[in-house]
Structures are given as structure tokens and as C-alpha cells.
Amino acid sequence: MIKLKSLAIFVISLTFLILTSCAAKPPLILQLDNEQVVTPLSQVDIESSLGQTVRWGGTIIETINKKDYSQIIILAYPLDNEARPINFERDGTRRFIAKFDYFIEPNTYSKDREITIIGKLDRIEQSKVGEFDYEFPIITVEKHLLWPIRSNYDPYYNDNYYYWNPYYYPVHHNLGHHGHHYSH
To answer: Residue 113: is its pLDDT beyond 90?
Structure first.
């Protein structure tokens, strides 16, 4: 009876270990310390969160290089379990600016690329979106990840099947009708 109980505990523990090891986690560069809480931009109170570390992401709207620094204007989206932006509905929650202390190549960090930022929520900056006055949260970037471009590949589509029908062309049939060969 004790062996059966020990075996059951072992099997349950092993199952738990296997399942938790397969769980999606952010890439190492985007992982935060355990005490840091990640709040999506759409739910954060900017004023009371100034100075805190945040992990936000979205798609790039524009990359701007200044004399001593660069800025990326980002349309924020919620992040998945790997900290990659989820932008299926294409309705971003709001905008923020990621400030880098170095040059950012605009051709690499181009419009609609997905990016995740970790950094300090530094301040709020008044600017405009078109003619509209807008308050941009400014993040001083500590770490970031520019995600690879998603492919439109459908993993369920398979055209590698073999099918041959003798009535499909370019099969040549000798029908013996007046010595003519017909091609379909």
C-alpha cells in the first residue's frame, strides 16, 4: 500500500514537472525579477507608476533619431505568455514612447514591426497625434526585443499529397482513331 501511494505521488510530481517545463515563458532578455509586477499599459495609472519598471509592447509607428538619443513611438498591445504583442484585432490600446540612449536604425526598427520594451516609466510628455493633444508615457529603455516578422504560413495547409488521374494532362493517349495521337 505504501509503495502504491509513493508511486502515485511520484507520477503526479513527474506530470506536474513535465507540464510546467513546457509552459511558455518570455525570452530571457524579457524576464523580470519576481517582485516586479507587470501591468498592461491600458490598465496602469501613469501618474502613480512613474519611476517603476514596466514591460510593454506593441507595433512600431515611427522611429525618430535625435542628436543624442532615439525614440520609437509604439502602439501598445497586450502581451502573450512570451511577452510578444498580441495584435490580432489591430486595435491598439494607446501609444507610448521608448527612449534609447543610442542610435536606432529606422530601416530595421520600421513601421509595424513588433517590439517589447523593459524600462523605467520616466515621465509623461505632451505632444500631438495629428491635431489631437496626446499624453505620451516615456519609457527609458533598459532592455528590448524586436520580434521576428510573423510569416503568413498556415501550419495546417499541406499540398504535399500525391494524386494522379490518368485523364489529366500532359498524359498522351494513343486512341488509335485514324492514327492520330491526342494530347489532353
So the answer is: yes
